[in-house]
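Sanity check. The docking grid for flavin-adenine dinucleotide depends on where the pocket ends up, so I'm generating a full predicted complex first rather than guessing from homology. Inputs follow.
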Amino acid sequence: MIEFLLNNEYVALDDFPADQTVLDYLRIHRNRCGTKEGCASGDCGACTVVIAEVVDDELRYRSLNSCITFIGSLHGKQLITVEDLAQGDELHAVQQALVKSHASQCGFCTPGFVMSLFALYKTQSSVDRYAVETALAGNLCRCTGYRPIVEAGLMACNQIGADQFDRCESIIISKLRAIPTHARAASFVIPDSIEQLANTMIEDPEYRIFCGSTDLALEVTQNLYTLPKLVSVGSVKEMNRVEQDNSEFRIGAAVRYEDCAGILVSQWPDLAEVFLRLGSLPIRNQGSIGGNVANASPIGDMPPVLMALNAALELRLGNEQRIVPMDEFFIGYKQTVLRPGEFISTINIPKSSGSRLFVYKNSKRFDDDISTCLGAFLIDFSGEKITRARIAFGGMAAITKRALVLENTLVNSSFNSETLRRARETVPLDFQPIDDVRASADYRIAVAKGFISRLFLELVRPNDIHRITRFEHQSMEMT
Ligand SMILES: Cc1cc2nc3c(=O)[nH]c(=O)nc-3n(C[C@H](O)[C@H](O)[C@H](O)COP(=O)(O)OP(=O)(O)OC[C@H]3O[C@@H](n4cnc5c(N)ncnc54)[C@H](O)[C@@H]3O)c2cc1C
Ligand code: FES
Ligand code: FES
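Predicted complex below; grid placement will be based on this.
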């Protein structure tokens, strides 16, 4: 059975549909209708809830989209919904701030904003506008306008003082610690070791593996498929580690973006923008690099980055292990070399000292939007000459692919206008994209050429500002 806390109440569930979402559980089975359903695809934030977990003897709070979270994922955690914040007639500080700032009109989006701000309130003691905007990037409001909402966030999250959750923290920690780390319900398995996971996958290949379910749950909520048997990697300890030595990072396939972004950005600063723009904070709290790679979408953000960095995947099938380089993992549209019962356990990324990684993402809006095209360039140079180039693009073919003609053109060339001209001409040789709902083939080619031009600008004039993110940041520092 799976066990969790619904605020302070202990809940144990044994017989439930594996693919039931937390949102449906709350609204249909618990009559907690404060949590709203807008899009059912993780895009609007109306369904935001907060999860608390014990990490290093403290409770760690994260915002999640309940519409794309399977109920079994709550095992061992505390679920907090908008109904839990006020105490009697007394609103929580976050709710009071929204009222004071006139930050709600029709109110449909408001519970989601309350919960995103509540998560921020519980995780940071002093916040700036940037932190509030990052916390709210996954919440849409269609009638109030964002200025009063952001003001409310600044007001609430800079207040000092304990709330009822701080006062109950030690009780909640001991209740959560009493729950075993592994669990099995009728059709939902939560192993806590890689052995248990490998055995489950071998014994019954009908089990569908998942981590954050930010891709998988859409099969249920958007395509209306049934997923009768699920196995979560969220508690598998070997797959939740981030390790490094002098030569490489080893990122467990179940590590969430928010738990590995910092260490990867410290090595490759360009990844800061990639992570900032990958979904919203709730998506990054839930989603994993392992899920992004295994999902095999040609527009996933991490595969081109990992390919440029020459990463390798450790795969496991029963007791058998093998290592597959990233550029051999995809074999066709949404197809990978994974065999039935096989899964990704770890992603190994060489540190590639001396190289610089440049990553450019094009999408229809800045936040919380899947890429139209993403280019990742790992470049070594000596003086003005390029000595090594590993380059991969997403959104340019049925799979993420290296740009081999471009790489060959750049190596041993100097950064000058002739090299740039020749480099731009390689795009249609490396890629023949198709028209689809996101962009036309011509547009994709133009965008990829634009990335190459920007790479050259950044190489030639490194101190100029070439990106809107840096421009915004600098103007904020100046004001
Ligand atoms: C609103 C929204 C915005 C998004 N924005 C972006 C974006 O900007 N960029 C982007 O790249 N993606 C985006 N995504 C997609 C998604 O969030 C990412 O692909 C995420 O990394 C998936 O990770 P997960 O742990 O949630 O995967 P899951 O949904 O749990 O799994 C995805 C797939 O991988 C399989 N799988 C999971 N783990 C393993 C494993 N260890 N071994 C083998 N198979 C496994 C599952 O069976 C499933 O088929 C977005 C999604 C949403 C809903
Ligand atoms: S209902 Fe829109 S994000 Fe969940
Ligand atoms: S208050 Fe109406 S959608 Fe935000």
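Relevant for the grid: The two ends are 55 Å apart (CA to CA).
Also worth noting: The chain is about 35% helix and 20% strand.
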